[in-house]
Amino acid sequence: MDYLLYPGCSLEGGGSHYLVSVEAVFKALGVKLTEIKDWNCCGASIHYVGGSELQTKALNARNLALAQQQGGQDIIAPCSSCYIQMIKTAHEFEEDPKLAAQLNQILAEAGLSYTGGVKVRHVLDVLFHDVGLERIRQAVKHPLTGLKVAAYYGCQTTRPYGEYDSVEAPRTMDQLLEALGAEVVPFDKGVKCCGSGIFFTEMETCARLVGDILGAAQAGGAQLISTACPMCQMNLEIYQSRVNKILHTEYDMPIVFITQLMALAFGCKYGKEAALDRNIVSPKSVLQAFAA
Amino acid sequence: MAKKYACYLCKGCGIGEALDFDNLQEVASESGMGEAKAHEALCSPEGLALIKADVDGGANALLIGACSARVKTDEFTFGKEVLVERASLREQTVYCTEAGEEAAADRQMLAADYLRISATKLQKMELPVPFQLEQPAEKAILVVGGGVAGLNAALAAAKAGAKVYLVEKEDALGGFLGKMAKLGPQSPPYQELQDTGLEDLVGQVQGNGNIEVFIGNTVAKTEGAPGNFTVSLSGGQSLRAGAVIQATGWTPYPPEKLADELAYGSSPNIITNVQMEERAKAGDLGGLNAVAFIQCAGSRDANHLPYCSAVCCLVSLKQAMYVKQANPEAAVYVIYKDIRTPGQSEEVYRQAQREGVIFIRRGEEYPKISDHGGKFTVETADVTLNDTVAIEELDLVVLATGMKPNNPKVVEPPLVALGMDQEEAKRLTAEAKAQSDDWSVLNLAYRQGKNLPTLKYAYPDSHFICFPYETRRTGIYAAGTVRRPMRVTQAIEDATGAALKAIQATTAAAAGFAVHPRSGDESFPEFFMQRCTQCKRCTEECPFGAINEDEKANPLPNPTRCRRCGVCMGACPERIISFKNYSVDMIGAMIKSIEVPEEDEEKPRVIVLACENDALPAIDMAAKAGAKWSPFIRFLPLRCLGSVNLVWIADALSSGIDGILLFGCKRGDDYQCHFIKGSELANVRMSKISETLDRLVLESDRVRVEEIGFGEVDKIPGIIAEFMETIESVGPNPYKGF
Amino acid sequence: MASKAYDKSFREEVYENVDSGEEIKLCMQCGVCGITCPLRDEMTYGPRQIWSLIRAGKREEVMNCSDIMLCTSCYACKVRCPRGVKVIDVMHGLARYALRQGIVPRKETSKFGKVFWDCIAKTGRIDETDVPMRYTMTAGPIHGIFNALEMMDIGRALLSHKRMKFKVAPGVPPAKKIKGIRGLKKMLKKAAAMSPGKES
User: Fold this and answer.
1) How far apart are CA A241 and CA A234, in angstroms?
2) Chains B and A are touching, with contact defined as 3 or more CB–CB pairs separated by less than 8 Å
């Protein structure tokens, strides 16, 4: 198994623990990841303020063209925002010949071209469909028995096409967590928007959205929230103190990546490989029992 | 026929453990069935072989005590010459009563009664002999109406091998299709307007050797019955046909009636969708820069047409595309209540949107149209904007008006009029007649009137869901927009369906069996005329107008019009109407064969006369689902509740039965009755017997009519329990033991 | 009395100039988008009504409505729209169109987005330290420092958890550029020229 990795800007910054744990997990599973060389930003959700739709597609077309140039394997985009931008461009390139021609005209400016066909995949997609639950179960050395987890996918993780899981009620992460031995608690906010797109600019509104999600997880009895999106992880975690102030709550809910939990269950190192020491709301008290 | 009885008792499905078979064999023998044979599973190959061997040995009247008659029908059929009667020891005995020792005695009595009832029935019935018309049945099919439905019906029937007469009142074939400029998109991807294809269709009809066309003709008279209609045309020809398809299409709702609401008539540029189509066909759509379509113009409106005509939305979409295609820059607005584009026609809606048509949801109120020197302003509520908006500078306003069937409205007097005092009945009848249309399409020479009965809005109605195309006149089928509002594709489908139904009808008439819903039934009502009192009950009450009358009011039955429901049998006060295998005497005897315990045993007996179309399946399903009810209940399945003769009530009460429940289908405007009026008639008749009961010093509470829908399985135990309580509070039948 | 007559010029302007503007033609006004939006309580109109306003020609109402810049891109409306309208792309298109007209539907989002895009356009990537710092400073020197202080606890936490690079000030040390930045710049210029409304 051989994939190209598109880390995206977030995994180089606030989501660095995602990247570390993704690499650890895929290494443990014997999956090869090669970073796309000289990739650029996908434009993310806020792109439209500065650029047109076509410019944003151009950003993503460049990454697709580079990927094709570098072997054309499926691209893993762990960040949901990158995933959605890239898969939209990839899809529309296939569906709309006019757009495809335009993009190639644009790519030509940088001496690039793209013929289509490169697949964009989410981490959950690859883990669930390519690696499979069976192989993951076999790789578990320290089952997360008794750990109560809320599976928070984030809004963009399976959207907009629902290629590998339902856009409304996804189940892949639930099943992956169960394969690790964890108990998935009832939680109906799995795809509810956390408002990360407006966290700098519409603080109060964002706090309400975050509060909804944290509250539902707590009500379900979760000890921590598992996610697969660095925007969500950051938004739900680093603003918890701020949310508590605005909403008069006392949340202290660790927000961890599914890959961090997976790394832990696979027997990887708590800090160096699972990067759990990088979580600001520390999951230590909940997770140390499972640490190698 | 000389009957040789044989009786079989099945021990499968838990029956064996629940019942005492020695006793049952005794009962069978006492009932004249001889020595009953018990088997572990009668439906198994071994069990069936056992029966087969006896049939081969000459047994021809079989009583099978096993599961409900509604299941394993293929297994327990042994050819046309063998009578089979099934006693439901499973659903109606073992499944629906409490298990265990304590309940064993009552359960056993129930099973024994079912054997007695079935034995009596078997003894009382004869093999039916199919009815044969005097001359061989005619297979030709008459199609009235040469529009899209009529043309397609004619073609479909002709392609299936039938001779077809196609009658069209105009001088050319085509109907409304001939007035259309284009058809809306009819095939994937549902984006392109299409030619009507009329020329090709007419060519196919004219080129088909099986089809004879009579243009410029109407039907002056239709006499006879399926397999033997004689049809006189206005042109003087006389045709013999086996079945009729009425495809007379529709008429636009008169737009003059919209003068107040929508300014129709005030300007040549406020037009209907029909006029718009004419303009499009004439190529007269130039110079239109702004057009508004107003949907539901006189439709879904209590003051005009209360119903949705189902096509106006699609017509406006198509016509909006006409305007856009003539001038892509034109502003086209569709002002609607709801856009109704079911199925693939949603694609047409999308296409109109892609072409830039603007849709405005208006709510219930009509928009106001004002004329400003030849340009119109339409003011309307805009529901989405929650505001009133104006659309100005319009060149043309198109009113999307609806469809009325080309069929005369028939209002029947309410059934309560039956048997009322003559003055009141006459008044109600006259009132109904005044509300009915006087003109006719088929000019039926039927005792009940020259037109097809209609339920609402002049659409010739029958059981809409279960039996499309059917009218209440057997062998006469409605297809296309005369049946309900529909679009071209649906009319084509309708036409094919009606053609196949018509072919079925001629086939059934030739073979002497019933059409739906008792398809294949070879029995038919026979009249013992010596005792007829010319009371007209049968000729008036037959839901299908099957019985004509001579001048002296003697009934003249037409068995090929008959659907074999037995409503006439229920109506006849002299009890002179019976079927070979279904008669007043037979059911009466079955009721009397029930053993009624003495009063001091405190074991009441209640019979349920149950419709076998809806109620009986519901009862079986309830039993199968584990519902339990009183073991004092005995079900007697009937062809229709309309066949209940009042003498059965007397029979039951005089033999000591404590209560009688009637389970029929839903009645009223949204009736579910397979025979349309059966359930209603039973209800009316039962309401009239309370007087009789009072005279006999019997409580009218002892008789009750209930409506049971096919899906109302859950209701059954409750209804029974409640009735049993009523019977308990009323006390035992005082005639018990006499 | 009608509040305003339908006018076709604005909808044609939108079809012509707004990214994905023609998408709204397919809206059938069911309202699923509006009721689905997690920020429905924050909006004056919501997508459905905005589309209707465009069709009716109510330019002022649409262009001056802050709803068009509230979207968090959660895609709930897009996945639920029975007509498959790319609700989000239209919303973004409208916001962008307003900005190009000199209208700022939401000040903070506009400022942040501008800094964000400029970073991409200059370096090819987002520097997750630089962008917030620059955005914070857009409030002006005094407010900027107050804002920065407020963000400081978060920044410090990220820094100490190895999730942020150290920076003294915006652009110090400077963000790294991708190797192909020159080509990317050319691409963006070309794409702008080919976009609806012919951006420059």
Assistant:
1) 12
2) no
